[in-house]
C-alpha cells in the first residue's frame, strides 16, 4: 500500500498522521489527568468512577467503527464473526480499567512511563515460557527501559503532584500498570490470532468487535445491580456538566486517534506508527509537567530520557532489521 501516495502527497499524509495522533492522544492524556485529579464544582468533589471512562470510550468507539464500516466496507464475507472477540474483550476491558485506576495512586507521567515498558513482560514471558533467545542490543533496550522506570518510581515525587492524587500509593499504582500490560499482551495475541484465521478482517472490524464486548462487560459491571458504580457516575455527570463534557471529548479523541493510527499503519507500516506513538508519549509527559502542574526533578527527567533512549534504540533496531529483510528480497 506504500506506493499509493507518491512524492509530496505521501509526505503530507505522513504529516497529517503525526498531527492527528499527537493532537488526539495528547489532548486525551490531558483530559484523562484532568478527570482523575480535578475537583469539580463548588463542593470540590472528585470523579471517583474512573472505570466509567472505559465504558464511555467503548460506546463512542463502537458507534464510530460501525459508521466507518457502513461507509467504507464493501463486504463482511470472510471477516471474524462478532462473537469471536469475547475472550479478548474480557482482557481489553480489565486491562485499560487497571491503567486508568492507577491514576488514583501515581501521577500521569509515572503511568505513561510504566505503560511504555511493554517490552519487559514480553521478553520475560518469551525467555522463561517459550525459551526465546534475544540479542544483546535487545537486552540493552530492556535494561534502559526497566532501569528508567525503576529509578523514576524510587525517586521522591514532588509534594504538589502527590497532593493532586486521590490516594497516593506508588506500589499499587505501578502494580496496576504492569497488570494492564499483561492483559494487553493477551489481547494483542488474541487479535493477531483472529486476523490470521480471518485474513479479510479489517481494523474497523476489530474495533467494532472489541468495543461491542467491552460495552457489554462494562455495562454489566457498572449497571448490573441496583447500586452499581455506573449510576453514581451518571449522577455525578448530571451534577457536574463540565466533567461530562471532558469525558465526551476524551472519548472522541480516542476514536479520532484510532483513525489516524489505522491510516498510518496502512500507508507507512507499523514501524512508523510505533515511532509516532512513542514520541507522542514523551511529549505527553512534557505537556503534563508544564500545563498540568506535575513538576519533575532533574533526576526524574534523567529517568524519562533513559526510558525513551531505550525505546528509541528499539525502534532503530526494528528499522535496521526491516532494511536487511528488504535487501534480501529478490528484485
Automatic annotation (TrEMBL):
Query: Which InterPro entries did the record assign?
Result: SCL35B1-4/HUT1
**What GO molecular functions are on record for this protein?**
antiporter activity
| Keyword Ribonucleoprotein in record | no
Transmembrane ranges, per UniProt, are 12-31, 52-71, 136-155, 243-265
Membrane disposition: Multi-pass membrane protein
Pfam families xrefs: UAA
Report keywords, A-Z. Answer: Antiport, Endoplasmic reticulum, Membrane, Transmembrane, Transmembrane helix, Transport
Q: Where in the cell is it found?
A: Endoplasmic reticulum membrane
> Would you tell me the Gene Ontology cellular component terms?
endoplasmic reticulum membrane
Q: Which PANTHER family match?
A: SOLUTE CARRIER FAMILY 35 MEMBER B (PTHR10778), SOLUTE CARRIER FAMILY 35 MEMBER B1 (PTHR10778:SF10)
Which protein family is it in? Belongs to the nucleotide-sugar transporter family. UDP-galactose:UMP antiporter (TC 2.A.7.11) subfamily.
**Would you tell me the protein name for this molecule?**
UDP-galactose/UDP-glucose transporter 3
Write down the species: Nelumbo nucifera
Provide the organism lineage as a comma list: Eukaryota, Viridiplantae, Streptophyta, Embryophyta, Tracheophyta
Amino acid at each position: 500500500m506504500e506506493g499509493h501516495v507518491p512524492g509530496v502527497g505521501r509526505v503530507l499524509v505522513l504529516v497529517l498522521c503525526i498531527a492527528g495522533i499527537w493532537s488526539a492522544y495528547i489532548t486525551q492524556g490531558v483530559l484523562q489527568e484532568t478527570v482523575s485529579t480535578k475537583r469539580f464544582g463548588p463542593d470540590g468533589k472528585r470523579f471517583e468512577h474512573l472505570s466509567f471512562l472505559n465504558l464511555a470510550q467503548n460506546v463512542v468507539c463502537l458507534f464510530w467503527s460501525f459508521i466507518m464500516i457502513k461507509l467504507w466496507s464493501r463486504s463482511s464475507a470472510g471477516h471474524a464473526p462478532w462473537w469471536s472477540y469475547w475472550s479478548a474483550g474480557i482482557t481489553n476491558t480489565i486491562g485499560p480499567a487497571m491503567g486508568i485506576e492507577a491514576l488514583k495512586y501515581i501521577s500521569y507521567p509515572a503511568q505513561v512511563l510504566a505503560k511504555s515498558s511493554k517490552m519487559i513482560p514480553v521478553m520475560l514471558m518469551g525467555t522463561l515460557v517459550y525459551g526465546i533467545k534475544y540479542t544483546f542490543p535487545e537486552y540493552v533496550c530492556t535494561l534502559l527501559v526497566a532501569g528508567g522506570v525503576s529509578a523514576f518510581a524510587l525517586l521522591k515525587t514532588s509534594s504538589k503532584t502527590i497532593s493532586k492524587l486521590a490516594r497516593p500509593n506508588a506500589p499499587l499504582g505501578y502494580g496496576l500498570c504492569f497488570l494492564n500490560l499483561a492483559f494487553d499482551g493477551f489481547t494483542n495475541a488474541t487479535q493477531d490470532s483472529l486476523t490470521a484465521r480471518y485474513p479479510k478482517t479489517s481494523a474497523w472490524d476489530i474495533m467494532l468487535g472489541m468495543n461491542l464486548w467491552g460495552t457489554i462487560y462494562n455495562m454489566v459491571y457498572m449497571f448490573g445491580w441496583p447500586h452499581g458504580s455506573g449510576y453514581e457516575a451518571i449522577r455525578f455527570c448530571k451534577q457536574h456538566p463540565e466533567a461530562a463534557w471532558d469525558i465526551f471529548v476524551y472519548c472522541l479523541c480516542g476514536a479520532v486517534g484510532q483513525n489516524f493510527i489505522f491510516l498510518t499503519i496502512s500507508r507507512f507500516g507499523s514501524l512508523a506508527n510505533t515511532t509516532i506513538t512513542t514520541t507522542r508519549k514523551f511529549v505527553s509527559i512534557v505537556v503534563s509537567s508544564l500545563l498540568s502542574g506535575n513538576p519533575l526533578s532533574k533526576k526524574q527527567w534523567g529517568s524519562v530520557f533513559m526510558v525513551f533512549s531505550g525505546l528509541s534504540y528499539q525502534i532503530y533496531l526494528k528499522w535496521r532489521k526491516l532494511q536487511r529483510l528488504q535487501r534480501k528480497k529478490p528484485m
